[in-house]
C-alpha cells in the first residue's frame, strides 16, 4: 500500500500546471477529494496569489475544503490559509519601505557590476514585495512556460563563461551576498538559470512557517509530509534549483519528489520521478 500523507506541499508552475495560463480544472479535480478527506494541501510558489488560477483559486472549492488549503507565496513573503472561505495572511516577511528600497539598490548594484565588470547586460523586475528578479538571459524568452527549461542550464553556463564571470553561478551568488553586505543586509539569492532572485526570504521560510502551523494545529510531523517540485536539479556543485529550498532542517525528514525530466544531480533525499504535471496529478489521485 502506498504511503498516505497528511500534508502535501507542491510547487505550482511546472508541477501542478504547465503554465499560469493553462487550465486548472485537472489540478483542481485532483485536489478536491483530498481536501474532502482533510488532507492538507500546500501550494509553495515564488509567484503572487493573483497568478495562482488567475487569483480565483478559492472559487473552485467549498468553504469546508478551503479549511485544508494553504499557500506559501512570493519566496517566503506571504503565507495564506482560509477562514470562512476568505484568504487570510497568517504570517509574512514584508520589509519596511527603507529595507525594500535597499533591496532595490542591492539589485541595481548587482546589475551594474555585471554590466561594467563583465559586459553582461541584465533586466530587473522591481515589482516583487521583498525581492527583485534579475533576468540574466534577456534574449531568452520563456513565454507562458515560466519554469526552468531543459536547455537553460547550459545556456547560462555558456553565457557566464563567455563574459568571464569567475566561479560561474557561485560567482553570481557571491556577488549578490557581497552587494547585500554593503547595506548590512543578509540576502538570500537563488537562481533558476534565467533569473537571479535576490531578497530577504525564500521558499524555506514558506515551508517552515506552514509546517510549524500544521504541527501546532494538527500535530503533523515532517515525516507525514511530501514535497513536490520540478526545480530541484543541481545547477552547479552544491547549488540547486528553487524547489530545493523546501528541504530545510525542519522538513528534511519528509519525502521529496522531483517531476522534472531535466538530467542532473538532485539534493540528498530527493527522488527524481520525472513525468511532469501528469506524474504529480497521478500521485494526487493515488492518495485518495
Write the layout of secondary structure elements.
Elements: E1 7-10, H1 25-36, E2 40-45, H2 63-66, E3 69-73, E4 78-83, E5 86-92, H3 97-118, E6 123-125, E7 131-135, H4 152-162, H5 168-181, E8 190-191, E9 195-199, H6 203-218, E10 225-229, E11 234-236, E12 239-240, E13 255-258, E14 270-272, H7 276-287
Parallel strand pairs: 1-2, 1-10, 2-3, 10-13, 13-14
Antiparallel strand pairs: 3-4, 4-5, 6-7, 7-9, 8-9, 11-12
Helix pairs in contact: 1-7, 3-5
What do you see in this structure?
With 288 residues, this protein is α/β, with parallel strands linked by helices. 32% of the residues lie in helices and 21% in strands. It has an eight-stranded mixed sheet, with helices on both faces. A four-stranded antiparallel sheet has the order 6-7-9-8, with helices on one face. The protein has a two-stranded antiparallel sheet with strand order 11-12. The chain starts with 6 loop residues before the first strand and ends with a helix.
Amino acid at each position: 500500500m502506498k504511503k498516505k500523507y497528511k500534508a502535501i506541499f507542491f510547487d505550482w508552475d511546472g508541477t501542478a500546471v504547465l503554465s499560469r495560463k493553462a487550465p486548472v480544472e485537472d489540478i483542481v479535480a485532483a485536489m478536491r477529494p483530498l481536501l474532502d478527506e482533510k488532507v492538507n494541501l500546500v501550494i509553495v510558489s515564488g509567484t503572487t496569489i493573483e497568478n495562482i488560477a488567475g487569483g480565483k483559486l478559492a472559487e473552485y472549492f467549498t468553504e469546508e475544503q478551503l479549511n485544508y488549503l494553504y499557500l506559501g507565496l512570493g519566496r517566503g513573503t506571504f503565507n495564506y490559509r482560509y477562514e470562512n472561505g476568505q484568504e487570510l495572511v497568517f504570517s509574512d516577511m514584508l520589509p519596511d519601505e527603507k529595507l525594500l528600497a535597499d533591496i532595490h539598490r542591492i539589485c541595481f548594484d548587482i546589475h551594474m557590476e555585471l554590466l561594467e565588470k563583465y559586459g553582461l547586460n541584465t533586466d530587473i523586475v522591481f515589482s516583487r514585495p521583498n525581492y527583485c528578479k534579475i533576468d540574466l538571459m534577456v534574449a531568452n524568452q520563456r513565454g507562458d512556460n515560466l519554469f526552468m527549461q531543459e536547455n537553460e542550464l547550459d545556456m547560462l553556463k555558456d553565457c557566464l563563461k563567455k563574459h568571464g564571470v569567475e566561479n560561474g553561478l557561485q560567482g553570481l551568488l557571491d556577488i549578490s551576498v557581497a552587494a547585500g553586505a554593503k547595506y548590512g543586509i543578509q540576502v538570500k539569492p537563488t537562481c533558476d538559470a534565467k533569473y537571479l532572485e535576490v531578497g530577504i526570504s525564500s521558499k524555506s521560510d514558506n515551508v517552515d512557517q506552514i509546517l510549524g502551523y500544521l504541527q501546532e494545529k494538527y500535530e503533523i510531523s515532517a515525516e507525514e509530509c511530501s514535497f513536490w517540485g520540478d526545480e530541484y536539479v543541481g545547477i552547479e556543485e552544491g547549488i540547486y534549483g528553487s524547489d530545493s529550498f523546501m528541504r530545510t532542517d525542519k522538513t528534511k525528514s519528509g519525502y521529496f519528489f522531483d517531476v522534472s525530466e531535466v538530467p542532473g544531480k538532485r539534493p540528498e533525499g530527493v527522488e527524481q520521478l520525472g513525468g511532469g504535471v501528469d506524474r504529480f496529478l497521478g500521485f494526487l489521485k493515488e492518495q485518495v
